[in-house]
Fold:
Amino acid sequence: MIELRNVSFTYAGSNRRVLQNLSLEIARGESVGIIGPTGSGKSTLCYLFNGLIPHHFSGKFQGEVLVSERNVMKETIESMSQIVGYMLQEPSLQIASPFVESEITFGMENFAVPVDKMDKRLNEIIAELGLEHLRYRATADLSEGEKQKVVLASILAMDPSILVLDESSSMVDSTSKNDLVKILTALKKQQRTLIIIDHDLDFLAKIVDRVILINNGSIIIDGATDSVLTNNRLLIKNGLIPPIFPDLFDIFQEKKLLDDPLPLSLESARKIVQKWLP
Amino acid sequence: MNYITVDRVVFSYRRNETLFDGLSVAFSLGEQVAIIGRNGSGKTTLVKLIAGMLRPQRGRILINNETITRKSIAEIATQVGFVFQNPNFMLFTNSVEKELALSLQHFKLSKQEVKERIDETLAFFDLTNYRLTNPRTLSRGEKQKVALATVLIQDPKAIILDEPFSGIDMSQKLMILQYIQKLKQQDKLIILITHSLDLLLTACTKIVALQNGQIAYDLPLKEFFADLTHLLKIGLEPTDYLSFITFLRKKGLQKDAIEKEEIIAFLLECALK
Structure:
């Protein structure tokens, strides 16, 4: 679905290579988390998937990016946006309409989706994301967390086969975050490709099957979620704090009080305690 | 004594849709208060009213026993500092030093005093080496720190932080948290809005929980978290960490133990049994 071949990138006006000779493949239907400390190149990497690099951000670009068998270099951002839904870190930058309803249909209108089909999709998406209470509100009056949900709705309305989320859980409350986990898990089941950048590793652990850790523009490790997110030493070495349960139980592994692997989920943490105190 | 008093405030963004219908709440110096609630519950609106960025339609707000009705935002800012969600909205100049100097321009200080305050603030935030750095080139977490410094250099008695942890990685979150802890020792009033429930556990001593524009709870932190139904009642689901604590309580963990060290100590007891 996505293939990067020896990609390097340097932003115009800078002499630091943000991405360094990066190669990777992501198959259709995969769910991938991209992690790394602030400034490691995570967002830059994701700008490649819909052509924001090189078409929007100028700089020195090398290598090849293929998305859905198309060479991103030869496509436009508009054509890519029908395949790749991209949710930016700051929802305010992505809201174009004065009202929630028109915001959700904005993308569909641009691609001349017939009105009856558009209405049907609007209703579906509002129900799916539980946005009934926001439907007739002005976008300017929404809280940041609400804006984030509306942006997600407008992206999903376009039915993209690849969804890229850049820090989209950072401003939503704990309940909405759990809702987001459910929504993304459902999208995963529909065989959509999910690429999620998030600083909340516990949130990622619940959704993605694969995690890529990048630092200084290079891939440090690319593996199964369970193995990468419980590798405390490697995470710390790369400026990250391990997820909650691997962090809490780290000392037990060190003291050889734990036979099991480090727990990543609430469920596996409970099981360990159950064993200790049946 | 109350430093900030919100007294029967009525406020709405739109006609026929009242957000606050007589809201009252008070904050004292030396408190670290977390305001929590669902998206859209009125958290940011409440602090914007306190900072004078929004004005109540009825009721009044007192800071240090004076009504703020006729005060400008800039006047209020000398008493109550405000750190926005997005640090990019707070940075205007091309060096950290100028950014800090800009915050002091209303204070009629001598050059020497300005220099001293800047030196002090840079040292407090470990920013001495960044004195001449352009804030725009810093990472989001570092920008957040500079934004916090520009507010604190004005030495307000109270400081409001609106979602200071969003968009930054955990190690930078912990760094911001460290400075909040450091401020605790200065008897300031800290008001923190955040969705990161796990982080506020170590930063705060009191919880003000908002629901649909009303104060649902105003409790000491440990009392609030001693019973997780408090969270559920305001529509917030507990984090995995809080759920785990609830589970451990059934295994004998004390009700007021919520910090990581306390949990590890309890788990160690369990493992060695």
Summary: The interface with chain B takes residues 37-39, 89-90, 141-146, 149, 167, 170-178, 199, 201-202, 239-241, 244-245, 247-249, 251-252, 257-258, 265-266, 269-270, 273, 276-277 of chain A (CB under 8 Å). Strands of chain A lie at 2-11, 17-26, 31-35, 59-67, 70-71, 84-87, 162-166, 193-197, 210-215, 218-224. The mean pLDDT of chain A is 91.
